[in-house]
Amino acid sequence: MDELISDFIIESGESLEQIDAALVAFEQHPKDQDILRQVFRLVHTIKGTCGFLELTRLEALTHAAENLMGRYRDGLPPTDEGVNTILTVIDQIKAHLDHMRAHDGAESDGNDQALIDALNRLAEEGTAEEDQFGDQAPFEGATETTAAPQPLDPLEEAFRNAPGPDDPLPMPAEPDAAASAPVAKPAKDPTAGTPPQGAIRVQLGVLEQLMTMVSELVLTRNQLMAVNREFEDARYHTPLQRLCSVTAELQDGVMKTRMQPISALWQKMPRIVRDLGKELGKQISLEMSGEETELDRQVLEQIKDPLTHMIRNAADHGLEEPGARVAAGKPEMGKIEMNAFHKGGQIVIEIRDDGRGLDAKKLKQKAQERGLANPAELDAMSDSQAHQLIFHPGFSTAEAVTSVSGRGVGMDVVRTNVEMIGGTIELQSSPGEGTLVSLNIPLTLAIVPALIVASHQERFAVPQRAVRELVRIAPKQNRKVAVQNEEDMQLEWVNGAQVLQLRDQLLPVLRLDEALGVQTATDNVDGGFVVVLEIGAFRFGLLVDAVFHTEEIVVKPMVGALKELKHFSGTTILGDGSVIMILDAPGLAAQVTQSELNDHGAQQDMGQDQQGEDRVELLCFILEGAGRKAVPLSLIHRLELVDLSQIEQVGGRYTLQYTERLMPIVFLRDQQMSDLQRSRQKPLLVFEDHGFMLGIAVDQVLDICKAPPHYDLDGAGPGYLGSAILDGKATEILDLAHFMAQEHPKLFERQGQTATPQRQKLLYAEDSAFFRNMLVPIFQSAGYEVTVCHDGQEAVERVQGGEAYDLIVTDIEMPRLDGFGLAKSIADAPHAAQTPIIALTSYDEPAARDQAKALGMSAYIAKNDRARLDDTLSQMRNRMDRDVA
Amino acid sequence: MQIVCFDVCGQHFGMEVGWVSDVHKLDALTPVPRAPEIVAGVLNLRGRIVLALNLARYLGGAPKEKSAQLMINVQFLNESYGFLVDSVSDVVSLAPDQVQACPHNVDPKLASFARGTVRHEGRMMSILNVDGMLQSMLSHDLMHCA
């Protein structure tokens, strides 16, 4: 029997049984809205499904019944006749279902016209009656006993006038007569009366419980066997043997209850494809292979919707119209292939169509329309990257929303569903040839293959999903004595971090015992194994003492109280009954990167005195062919995306009309000139200083990263302050003042001119080369003559040496003498006590702020607060100018 | 009420028998690295994973090496917990009025989840409120250590 129909029969039969009680209640309290709705829903569902399955007879019947019940639901008071008729309909539905069950899903001949007529008549009467009685109708509903007889008169009158059987009771006999064939036929086949295939539904929890118990039984059996081996008692021999085989069979059987062939799911597909083809006017053939592949029923349940959706997609979007196919030189009949097979402990399900394939250009266009990505990103995308766009939420390529697809459930939902069960989804497509979607899904959710490893006599399980390879580390003695064997792998140390050179890759190695805090001694590593794990694109090695074997483990969730432990993802019980912990590869990976970061930070700290906290935010970007560059985020005014074709060349300089002004554009490398002709979009960093704008065109903006304040300033070319290691990569820091001076020579001139004839003198104490390079030009552009000191002590010495300054700007954290110390010393120096002091700091703490105030500092400004720094500088200038005047 | 009497580090304790699902010999305990101190490990009890808690450590006594021999199993919020104890002696019936309030000088931690004390076979026995104790063990100490 068609799987779809047999499902329908089972489900409808179950629902009918469920509402049996409700039906009885319905008979007694026909006006109870809850019961009415329940029955209505059932009839409605059956009607809908019948329409889909093309069971016309049942559909006509349920449609008429639904009609009447809809009226009752809307407030028409049900009559005895109506209730009886509905009950008759329910019985008739049951009879139909029984017939279909016995006849391989075929509907019985004939029709239920008499019953349908009765239903329609009742529904029409309702209309007439409502017209007649108008507002009274609701009242009748309210007072059941007294009001009920009232409408009977007109009803009976109408009833008498209406064509059809006189008495409502014989009515069921009519349809029965019409459908006498179905009722009669089952009698010929006595077995047909039993429920189909003897299937029952069992709660998954019950099965789980059963499985746990069976595994326990296996353990107990194993223990008994061990005892028997020890004492060799012949009397136990036979019963134990029996116990063995029975247990094994029981275990098999229970495991089988979880597994189902994928055909259980695929059986529905030909029907769906056929219907889709009809609806879409396409000829589609469906080929399936590997139907016998077995899957955990839970997994099967989870991939049901994604699979159906992908089939719909393939039929609707993938395959072309017949005309288009012929034009493309393909057979008129479109082909969809489904294939399932085992591969590396996983099930692979492939869905392939020979349709038009994905159109990368169209996808990009769509993505832009939907605002899913900006043009620059899309431009940079390869075709296969563009194909991935269909997994983006809110993406559908169907040009028209058909009833088949485009219901707001897209491939993103498919992917989410697949990933939820630990699977992955891949998509390959070539234009004109078709699309291949492959799902990699785990066999089961409950059982995973795992590698059992040991560290310090304790065993742990590593899920094999993450394991890429195993590497044996040669013990030390061998290495010393024997000639260096090329094959021998050894661990090496890089700056206190353990690494393994594996072919051309240098892998960070995490010691399991250290990660678990079992032992931290670093020098007694002798031999052992490195389990190479891969999480996403991140590979690392896990050093363990021993590797045993792989085992299918039943994953048990972590004990609630221990969920905090990130190293473990759960627990499992091994064949010998012992409990071991399952290592969580992502958790361990996090520890590797964590410790790497920490190490990195520690080294930074050592190299930079007390300035560990002193970090600047930098915007990193890429210049094609010139590597990573960065610029302090605080200096950036805006980030724009501009069309290169809009950039004009004026007097040998590149300019762009920006907010109704001309902004000079700096290209950091020459090759980009040729791009101007093409209309490519590029990110533009916009800087602004005293109304002067400057744009710097870059190729790709990467990210914002925190930078240590100290840079290697050697070898910086013009336009660069120096380079730093940002996120582990060498990055050059742009010298903005250089470009500003280059593009706006007036900016510096002007400020020089408008300032008082003699420039104000500013003493700047700062130990960070970065800030010296960054801020000195700012002070200069604000019209100061800057003297730079490398720490507070130097500044004090200068002041005490008699040098006079109009303004002192100081960092707080400095070696030898900090900013506060400097402020104190200045206050003690008679000729400098009145000099205003601005404290610049990288961290803004209220306590430090208070201290600055207490010491009489004029301002306390965060280093990255460019606006406030500018304001304060000009305020100071104005005040001093006034003083001078 | 029926009270199961047991000894931990030489001290006498009791808990209501209704809580106790099993008392069994301790074997094959798997330690959990990085777990809080009071977690002795996990073990398999008829297919259920049981979190073994070191009662001696929690109740503050200095545990003798390998002193715990038995485990008392309880179910709490759908999970299984086991308390390591030195010995389980008896189940006694007590009338509620036999239980006196804890003296004020007992450890406040113990007092927070002890129902009271009672004299049993010549020794003082503290009756433990199992849910209170588990809650206190799980919330405070586990969160803190993990």
Automatic annotation (TrEMBL), chain A:
The keyword Kinase applies. Residues 447-594 form the CheW-like domain. Residues 144-197 are annotated as: Disordered. Residues 174-185 have a biased composition (Low complexity). Keywords: Kinase, Phosphoprotein, Transferase, Two-component regulatory system. Residues 205-445 form the Histidine kinase domain. Signal peptide: none annotated. Pfam families: CheW (PF01584), H-kinase_dim (PF02895), HATPase_c (PF02518), Hpt (PF01627), Response_reg (PF00072). The keyword Membrane does not apply. GO terms for molecular function: kinase activity. Residues 761-878 form the Response regulatory domain. The modification Phosphohistidine is found at H44. Its EC number is 2.7.13.3. InterPro entries: Bact_Chemotaxis_CheA (IPR051315), CheA-like_dim (IPR004105), CheA-like_homodim_sf (IPR037006), CheW-like_dom_sf (IPR036061), CheW-lke_dom (IPR002545), CheY-like_superfamily (IPR011006), HATPase_C_sf (IPR036890), HATPase_dom (IPR003594). Residues 1-100 form the HPt domain. CDD domains: CheA_reg (cd00731), HATPase_CheA-like (cd16916), HPT (cd00088). The modification 4-aspartylphosphate is found at D811. It catalyses: ATP + protein L-histidine = ADP + protein N-phospho-L-histidine. This is histidine kinase. It comes from Maritalea mediterranea.
